[in-house]
Design a protein that fits this description.
twelve-stranded antiparallel beta sheet; outer membrane lipoprotein receptor (LolB), chain A; four-stranded mixed beta sheet
């Protein structure tokens, strides 16, 4: 699978893009005796299953794109709505994910000279724990934490240089794996991932990328004809800074619908 980022003039990304910059639980109590390997095994299996189900659904995505000043004030704010889906294939052990966004309503031409940031791929940040990518990260158990009323395991992850990454930066004909590091909140009995926060483990200022931070929250979505709910992206925020620009995008995913080649079924909104 190749998620890429590109920087003007050749910065291309499955993760981020901006005018030349390309950068989308149960209530069971955690068992204290669970080892890190046990939790990672459950999370890996759960992510693989969730990805299959995620590619069987579409939803409404609302995107708020902001340009920030040096003191953090919003200089520009643009809102858009899309029909969103992810197409997942696994051919010969090689993963491929393609995002589709169809605008809802009329799209007006953007005459503003300051480029917006277009962020893609962050919804599937849980790929860090997918069997295809898990070997590319070092995982460390942190102290438990409660989100809402749920006691969750906090697992830190750190990218291992020289391995495959869920996202890469393509620049001047070369590809650089993004060194993602961060923390995931995981329900230990099921492997459900409720939240992930990630940023660059190492600076990439040599290619113009100063900072990158993403926060993704997942929530249970009931799918018709399936016995259990699946935890899909509910909200993703992405903040990126270069030496010249500072952007912040927020994605909100609602109204998930399961579909197939011949049928389409509406399910409960988030």
């Amino acid at each position: 699978m190749k998620n890429t980022m590109t920087k003007n003039p050749a910065l291309r990304s499955y993760v981020l893009a901006a005018a030349g910059f390309l950068l989308c639980m149960t209530s069971a109590k955690a068992r204290a005796a669970d080892s890190l390997d046990d939790i990672l095994s459950r999370a890996s299996a759960r992510v693989a299953d969730t990805l299959e189900r995620f590619s069987e659904a579409k939803c409404t995505e609302r995107v708020d794109q902001q340009i920030l000043s040096e003191d953090g004030k919003v200089e520009r704010d643009v809102n858009s709505t899309y029909d969103y889906l992810v197409i997942f294939t696994d051919a010969g052990g090689e993963l491929s994910l393609d995002e589709s966004r169809q605008p809802v309503g009329e799209v007006k031409p953007d005459k503003n000279s300051t480029p917006l940031l277009v962020t893609n791929g962050f919804a599937t940040l849980f790929l860090v724990f997918h069997p295809y990518y898990a070997g590319s990260f070092q995982f460390t158990a942190l102290e438990d934490e409660t989100l809402g009323k749920q006691r969750l395991k906090k697992i830190a992850f750190h990218y291992l240089r020289g391995t495959r990454s869920p996202a890469t930066l393509a620049l001047r004909g070369r590809e650089y794996p993004l060194p993602l590091s961060g923390t995931a909140w995981i329900e230990p009995d099921t492997g459900v991932i409720a939240r992930i926060v990630a940023d660059l483990g190492n600076t990439m200022e040599d290619v113009g990328l100063r900072t990158l931070r993403s926060e993704v929250d997942y929530a249970p979505v009931p799918l018709r004809d399936l016995k259990e709910s699946y935890w899909f992206p509910a909200r993703a925020s992405v903040e990126v800074a270069t030496s010249r620009q500072h952007w912040r995008n927020t994605h909100v995913f609602t109204d998930y619908q399961r579909f197939s080649v011949s049928t389409e079924e509406k399910v409960a909104s988030q």
